[in-house]
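Figure 2 data, in text form.
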Amino acid sequence: MRRGQRRAVLYGAGTLVAAALLFAGFGITVAPDPATRLNGATLHAEAGQFDAALDIVALVLREHPGDLDALIYRATFLGMARRYDEALRALADALGAAGEEPEIARNLQMDRAALLLEMGRTDQFRAARAELAAAGADHRVLVLDGLEASRRGDPAAATAAYARALDAKPDDPAIRARLWNACMEQGKAAVARRRFADAQAAFDRARELFPQVAAAHLRAAETRLALADAPGAIEVLRHLSPRTPGIAPLVFRAATVLLESGRTVEAIEALGGAYASDPAAVKSLFETERAWDALRGAAEVQAVFAEVERNHGGGLTRAH
C-alpha cells in the first residue's frame, strides 16, 4: 500500500474538503476521484470493515481498470482481512500493472515475501527473499530479515535489521514503525528477563522514533522505577499529558521511591503531581501504601492535596 499511502498524504485535506462539499449538498455532482475513494476505503479497513473497503476498491477498478493504487489497496486490504490466497493473487495483479515502475514493483515483491512468511510458507518466503536480494540487496531485504526475526521470537535481531533498513532509507515511515514495534518487543523481552537497563535502552529508542506515542514513555518510566531512578521516571513522564491513562500510578510509585530513599520534600511534590493526574486513584493508593503511614495526616501532604484541588488539577512536577 506504500504508493497509495503516499498519494493519500498528498491529497490529504484537499480531498476531505472536496468530499465534505460533495456530500453536504453544495451542488457538486462530479464523482470523487480514485484517490478520494481510496482514502475512504482506508478508513473502513482501519475500522476492520474489510468488505466495505473492498467494495470501494472494486468500484474504483470498474471505473478505472488497471489503476495501480487500487490494485495495491485491494491486495493490502485482503491481507489485513487474512484472506491470504486472494491477497497473493491481488499482489500478482498489482505486480503485472507495475511493470514500468521498478521501485514499486520491488516494494510489491517485498510485500509478497512478507505475506508468504505470514502464511507460514517459509521455503517460498526464502526463495522470494533471495530473488529480491539478487536484484540488489537494499533496505527491503533488511525489512524481510526483521520480519523473519520477529516471527521466530528474536526481537533484538529484528531491531538490528530494521535499524539497518532505516539507516538505508531514513525517510520511510513504514520502516520506522516496524523498528518502533521491534524496540517495544525487545524492551518487554528484557523486562521479562529482569534486564532493566537493556529494557530502558530499547524503550528510550522507541521514544525517540515516535515521541508522540505514550506507550514507550510509560514503559521507559517503569524500567527507571525498576532501577530505583524515580527522578528519571518523572522526567520521562513529563513528556506526557497529566491525563494520560496509566500515568498517575507511575508518578505515585516514583513518589514512594523518593520517600523510601529519604527525599521527603521531593516525594510530597511528586505525590501532588500524581494526585493532579488522577485524584481518586491516587487517594486510594495513598491510603493503602504503608510507606506513607507516617505522613498520612501530615500538614504538608494535606496542603499539597488542597493546592491541587484549588487549581483543579495541574502538571507533573520535576524531581531533582
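Caption note: Residues 2-23 form the longest helix (22 residues).
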